[in-house]
Write a structure and sequence with these properties.
Blueprint (H helix, E strand, L loop, with lengths): L2 H34 L5 H24 L7 E3 H12 L4 E5 L4 E3 H15 L6 E10 L2 E7 L8 H7 L14 H11 L5 E4 L4 E4 L1
Helix pairs in contact: 1-2, 2-3, 2-4, 4-6, 5-6
């Protein structure tokens, strides 16, 4: 991994590591309060839902932007758990069909692809993840997304046709994903239809 990407991954891992413990402690505290009947009502529900959403997002971001150790694996159960928890507070759900254990570096790329597709789905919907049976392509991520969103130039960056140095922080996944794929000496294919986008890599 190039020095810049390595440093970014280490920072991402550190931030997520430092956040997941206090968020988990808040979750545990809320569960204890609920069992004791100390707090009830919509306020408690709002806090509980918000903490659960934060925990799910941190788990997802830890994989998407954190450090992927060489040879480290992630099982389908863990991936499904992360995505299921993430969808609880979102208009987007995930249809994950691959089975078995996966290289964490590959799952990092898939999660970044999910973020790219999500950003082009103004009305929500289902994102599908399947294995791509094509030369040089392992994964296929698709959803009811629009190539005009969030910015057509970002999809040029994904395909290596434009420079991603001026990308805003909210769209960093569009720069990081092609950089990681390029380190494997591969590229990303973008398939566009009137009402969907598909990434293959």
């Amino acid at each position: 991994m190039q020095t810049t990407h390595l440093l970014a991954s280490l920072i991402g891992s550190r931030i997520c590591h430092d956040l997941i413990s206090p968020v988990g402690a808040i979750q545990n505290g809320l569960e204890l309060l609920s069992l004791e009947g100390a707090v009830r009502g919509p306020e408690m529900m709002l806090i509980s839902d918000s903490v659960s959403a934060a925990s799910a997002k941190i788990r997802f971001m830890r994989i998407a932007f954190g450090m992927a150790g060489q040879g480290q694996k992630i099982g389908r159960t863990e991936v499904a758990s992360v995505l299921e928890d993430l969808s609880q507070s979102s208009r987007i759900t995930y249809d994950w069909t691959p089975t078995g254990d996966f290289d964490r570096g590959q799952i990092q790329e898939v999660f970044l692809a999910l973020l790219c597709i999500e950003s082009a789905m103004p009305h929500g919907g289902v994102i599908s993840v399947t294995r791509a049976d094509l030369p040089g392509k392992t994964w296929e991520v698709s959803g009811p997304a629009l190539a005009a969103r969030p910015d057509p130039q970002l999809w040029e960056v994904i395909q290596g046709r434009a420079d991603g140095t001026a990308i805003a922080p909210a769209h960093v996944q569009f720069a990081l994903l092609p950089a990681l794929v390029a380190e494997r000496h591969e590229s990303i294919d973008l398939l566009v239809t009137e009402d969907s986008l598909t990434l293959r890599f």
